[in-house]
TrEMBL record:
Residue ranges annotated for the Transthyretin/hydroxyisourate hydrolase domain, each copy included: 6-115
Higher taxonomy: Bacteria, Thermotogati, Deinococcota, Deinococci, Deinococcales
EC number: 3.5.2.17
Species: Deinococcus soli
Name the UniProt record assigns to this protein: 5-hydroxyisourate hydrolase
Function in brief: Catalyzes the hydrolysis of 5-hydroxyisourate (HIU) to 2-oxo-4-hydroxy-4-carboxy-5-ureidoimidazoline (OHCU).
Length: 116
């Protein structure tokens, strides 16, 4: 995906494959206020069908991406889930750039980075 905007994907590092069906919620953070921008799910490729924020609509500021991973991992372990919601708070400094924020996740840990 090229141009400015915001996208994500979720990779299941325990199974070595994309994580399909994970609920994703995006909010804009302004001080103590959080504004819901979108709710969606990951597809079979672990990505959302549409960008979270389309090209030309990205604004500078702080955002929160929340991935509800507990139901996805419910069948992988018999123990209660360690991770439930994984929330990533990040700042967009350049509204003209593309921000890709992936989640690499297992039932017990996660990591992220700013991708391209």
């Amino acid at each position: 995906m090229s141009g400015a905007g915001l996208s994500t994907h979720v990779l299941d590092t325990a199974r070595g494959r994309p994580a399909a069906g994970v609920p994703v919620t995006l909010r804009r953070v302004d001080g103590e206020a959080r504004t819901l921008l979108t709710r969606t799910f990951t597809n079979a490729d672990g990505r959302t069908d549409e960008p979270l924020i389309a090209r030309g609509e990205l604004r500078t500021g702080t955002y929160e991406l929340t991935f509800t991973v507990a139901p996805y991992f419910a069948d992988l372990t018999s123990a209660d889930p360690f991770l439930d919601d994984v929330t990533l708070r990040f700042t967009v400094a350049d509204a003209g750039a593309h921000y890709h924020v992936p989640l690499l996740v297992s039932p017990w840990s996660y990591s992220t980075y700013r991708g391209s």
